[in-house]
Automatic annotation (TrEMBL):
Keyword tRNA processing: no
A GO biological-process term: nucleotide-sugar metabolic process
InterPro entries registered for this protein in UniProt: dTDP_Gluc_deHydtase, NAD(P)-bd_dom, NAD(P)-bd_dom_sf
Organism this protein belongs to: Neotamlana sargassicola
Catalytic activity, EC: 4.2.1.46
Family: Belongs to the NAD(P)-dependent epimerase/dehydratase family. dTDP-glucose dehydratase subfamily.
Cofactor: NAD(+)
GN (gene name): rfbB
Protein name from the UniProt record: dTDP-glucose 4,6-dehydratase
GO MF annotations, alphabetized: dTDP-glucose 4,6-dehydratase activity
Catalytic activity entry: dTDP-alpha-D-glucose = dTDP-4-dehydro-6-deoxy-alpha-D-glucose + H2O
Amino acid sequence: MKILITGGAGFIGSHVVRLFVKKYPDYQIYNLDALTYAGNLENLKDIEKEPNYAFIKVDITDEHAISELFKTYKFDNVIHLAAESHVDRSITDPLSFVKTNVIGTLNLLNAFKELWKGDFEGKRFYHISTDEVYGTLGETGLFTETTSYDPNSPYSASKASSDHFVRAYGETYGLPFVISNCSNNYGQNQFPEKLIPLFINNIINKTPLPVYGDGNYTRDWLYVVDHAIAIDLVFHKGKNAETYNIGGFNEWKNIDLVKELCKQMDAKLGNPEGTSEQLITFVKDRPGHDLRYAIDASKINKELGWSPSVTFQEGLKITIDWYLSNANWLKSVTSGAYQNYYEKQYS
Ligand code: NAD
Ligand code: TYD
């Protein structure tokens, strides 16, 4: 089986590639990635020489290159993760999100459709999406697979649009697809623009921790390896044309999460208790900031037997330990362009 995994040099994609390469030696895994600021082949150093792994540097917005690639390699299956993924960047540059997340997804769908021309036996297009397409919850309730789409940020609008196109290709052309919508991930190799790695990096460097608004926003956090395990299950056992919600059953208000992170970091760094909390700085809120995300993951739990394998305390500990022992990784991704981004975003 030839599987194309897009965005495999990024955060979640690298964990998915590793899992598939190691667990399925009989599958040929092709990792396609444009290596944007968020893509890093260092994330896959440990498996890059495996005989069932190959890397292809291509941009999914390049229609011709994508079409040629499908003709050459004849991928049986696609697991599509490549995306522009950060909400703050989508607020300053929405068009690049449309290009990659919408047009890029369409290029992949078209190439897949043209390659197999209706003979889809044993083929599947698996689209990885986010719970942010559902918009925001109030203080109560959970997102289910039937919650209406109501995206509020350019990022979530672009992901919602790509989800709709995938479903439309299923209805219109009979393309076999499955979609999963996951809550906020955390773990090793996450680019330090997202809350947890950004704050770990700032605590290490003793720089302010910029909490948006009053910090009373809620997210449902899932350890990235548990997301990769869920993706493996959905890919192999999920039903065509279905959506599966994936979440951590693990809601935290940002401010409580940041305080917990400060506590654990102080303990690791040998700081007196309360040291890192002093870095918390309330800053201007993100425009269109969704109040609360929380996933009802009972469908994937009941139908595919999935549930998170680690607790949040365990996952956070693994994550902190990884960042502390991978100072070079952190340094290399925060040099150069990162400095400009940080200044623009937080000045
Ligand atoms: P990421 O930003 O860490 O990685 C994205 C990867 O895609 C990078 O390797 C980048 O180089 C690549 N890429 C970007 N544009 C590309 C292009 N035009 N052509 C080819 N490759 C390109 O993202 P992530 O956090 O790993 O998210 C992966 C997927 O999971 C995304 O589709 C995202 O919407 C979804 N998702 C993320 C989360 C989360 O919490 N991070 C939660 C739910 C769903
Ligand atoms: P983020 O990691 O960007 O994920 P998402 O916006 O996709 O949920 O942000 C998680 C939460 O943390 C969100 O409510 C915004 C907040 N946040 C801050 O308060 N400060 C920051 O510097 C960042 C990046 C996020």
